[in-house]
Amino acid sequence: MKKITIAIDGFSSTGKSTLAKQLAKHLGYVYVDTGAMYRAVTLFAMQNGYINKDFFDKETLINSINFVKLHFEFNAVVGFAEMFLNDVNVESEIRTLEVSNFVSLIAEVPQVRAKLVEQQQQMGFGQGIVMDGRDIGTVVFPTAELKIFMTASAATRAQRRYDELQNKGQDVSYEEVLKNVEKRDYIDTHRDDSPLKQADDAIEIDNSYLTKEEQFNTVLELVQEVLG
User: Fold this and answer.
1) What is the DSSP secondary-structure string of the chain?
2) How many Å apart are CA 147 and CA 203, to the nearest integer?
């Protein structure tokens, strides 16, 4: 059976990962959460004192990037692959607001992007794959058979992210989350290397008022059209 590459790009907290996991499970494809990879590098930088709210030692991070080993391991209990940093499961640690505050700065670094893009392309070689991120359809897989670009209002995305963090027991305010979302939007769309933008042949989906089920069914129809 024909297998394709599905690239899902878009702004933070648009539910890209949720949709990608649904599609991968339904189609029996490999799923790669590129955002988790950038978050893991961010956690590495935080753990080693390369970045904090007042300081970013970019050169030391660049010189240390070859010491960052990333891989995913499928967890049957939760139903998706979890992120491992240097053989340690960091899935929970990388989902905090603190990591979110720094991840766009880390993702701006060209040497970091080059390293991770190389790994992402290797993961997707020769197999059906669903990959989500910021530059999948424009840089990682520019020839992907199906490209989706997801968007929603900043307020909607902040509310979703706030609810998610609250459910995980993290003590944050909606205002903090909204500020983080807007800051990440600006950095992601204005960086010099691989800025977030919609690929010319990507299909835009504004999910501000879509349920997860409606969103999934909309994209699944597009997949079926491509598969013929």
Assistant:
1) ----EEEEEESTTSSHHHHHHHHHHHHT-EEEEHHHHHHHHHHHHHHTTSEETTEE-HHHHHHHGGG--EEEEEETTTTEEEEEETTEE-TTGGGSHHHHHHHHHHHT-HHHHHHHHHHHHHHTTTS-EEEEESSIIIII-TT-SEEEEEE--HHHHHHHHHHHHHHTT----HHHHHHHHHHHHHHHHH-SSS-----TTPEEEE-TT--HHHHHHHHHHHHHHHH-
2) 6
Strands 80-85 and 70-75: antiparallel
Q: What is the pLDDT of residues 47-98, one digit of tens each?
A: 999 999 999 999 999 999 999 999 988 888 887 789 999 999 999 999 999 9
Q: Is the pTM of this model over 0.85?
A: no
Residue at 171: amino acid letter = D
What's the gap between Cα 180 and its chain centre? Answer: 15
| Range 176-201 burial, b when 16+ CB lie within 10 A, else e | bbbebbeebbebbeebeebebebbee
